[in-house]
Amino acid sequence: MSLSNSESKKLYSSLMGYAYKLCKDKTLMQDLVHDTFIKQMDQHHDDLPFDNIKYWCMRVLKNRFNDVVKKKREVQLD
């Protein structure tokens, strides 16, 4: 089972809002949400309830954001 179109749109909207709160950078927001959707599709979590998928995706997005910030700091220190 996969996410319905309305669930996908709802998830996209939630993730974009969350990404905006984290970074306030439109390009980075789109990249984070894209990466999160790709990971969700690769992991096949479609059998979980929508709320579980949503919160799992938010955690993935936050972890990805933290990775990007960490990498930027490492580059600036070099």
List the helices and strands and how they pair.
Elements: H1 5-23, H2 26-43, H3 50-77
Description:
The protein is mostly helical and 78 residues long. 83% of the residues lie in helices and 0% in strands. It has three helices and no strands. Helix 1 crosses helix 2 and helix 2 packs across helix 3. The model has no long low-confidence stretch (mean pLDDT 90).
Provide a concise account of the structure shown.
The protein has 78 residues and is mostly helical.
Mean of all residue-level pLDDT scores: 90
Alpha-carbon distance between the termini? 46 Å
State Rg: 13 Å
**Series of secondary-structure elements, N-terminal to C-terminal:** HHH
Secondary structure: number of strands: 0
Helix fraction? over 70%
Low-confidence stretches: none
Could you say which overall geometry the principal axes of the C-alpha atoms support?
Answer: elongated
| Strand percent estimate | under 5%
Q: Major beta sheet, specifics?
A: none
Which class of secondary structure composition applies to the elements? mainly alpha
| Count of helical regions | 3
Using brief descriptors, characterize the structure shown:
single chain; mainly alpha; 78 residues; 3 helices
